[in-house]
Amino acid sequence: MTKYDTRYSHSPQDIRNFSTEDLRREFLVEEIFVPGEIKLTYTHDDRQIFGGVTPTNKKLEIVLNKELGVDYFLERRELGVINIGGEGKITIDGQVFDMKKQDGFYIGKETKEVIFESVNESNPAKFYVVSTPAHKVYPNVKISIDKITPREMGDDLSMNKRKIYQYIHPNICESCQLQMGYTILEEGNSWNTMPCHTHERRMETYLYFDMEEDTRVFHFMGLPSETKHLVMKSEQATISPSWSIHSGVATKNYSFIWAMCGENITYDDMDFVEMDQLK
């Protein structure tokens, strides 16, 4: 079963007087992984689709033909996948690939069949998927976290020591516009991306996970001069428009998957915000 939600774009002026409930309704996705279901969100910010595929006793396939006006899902799109759950498998145009936790995949435009399954339904795979429009066919590539040399950033003094694993990135594989990666904060660290930045040329989505039940992330968003925040628990996601900062701090260390799309695929194309500009 596929559940499909649509979120529309907003300007900074739109959210100036938003209540907490308004912000959560427009930018937060509170439920990503539902056993036996596909749960996706389509955001009009660069037309990214993101969400969770959680197979249990049956295989699952994303079918969005009518919604996208195409003959099959990836006719005009590319897809990124990272498994954050139990062992699973992906069948891509008849070829089966094992997918352990932290394995990822880039699946290119014009791939007709992508089927997800779990090895053990009592410990199902949790496939986090992100899809963006694509203009060219690039090869499908399986990506394991074990094959990636992480970027080590931050320090204990600033409470932001972390490792950044770039999955769908020019250093790893080719893509049209999708970038996707996995950030792990070290124990005792809780800040991500501070000083913060914006991406005027790209939007981004975040999935926070690997958190204890009572751990909470305070995800900061909005203009640097008018910051707002969302309080999030494990396995929730948020939409970050190009004009918005996107930084977080939590009550304990956590992991998150980031996915970007837009004008370019230059990871370091950021507009940094000086601390004295934040309000």
TrEMBL record:
Keywords of the record: Isomerase, Metal-binding, Zinc
Function: Catalyzes the isomerization of 5-dehydro-4-deoxy-D-glucuronate to 3-deoxy-D-glycero-2,5-hexodiulosonate.
Cofactor details (free text): Binds 1 zinc ion per subunit.
EC number per UniProt: 5.3.1.17
Biological processes per GO annotation: D-galacturonate catabolic process; D-glucuronate catabolic process; pectin catabolic process
Cofactor: Zn(2+)
Entry-linked InterPro entries: KduI, KduI/IolB_isomerase, KduI_N, RmlC-like_jellyroll, RmlC_Cupin_sf
Protein species of origin: Helcococcus kunzii ATCC 51366
Sequence similarity: Belongs to the KduI family.
Pathway: Glycan metabolism; pectin degradation; 2-dehydro-3-deoxy-D-gluconate from pectin: step 4/5
Protein name in UniProt: 4-deoxy-L-threo-5-hexosulose-uronate ketol-isomerase
Top EC class for this record: isomerase
Keyword presence, Transcription regulation: no
Sample GO molecular function, one term: zinc ion binding
Catalytic activity: 5-dehydro-4-deoxy-D-glucuronate = 3-deoxy-D-glycero-2,5-hexodiulosonate
Positions annotated to bind Zn(2+): H197, H199, E204, H246
SUPFAM superfamilies reported for this sequence: RmlC-like cupins
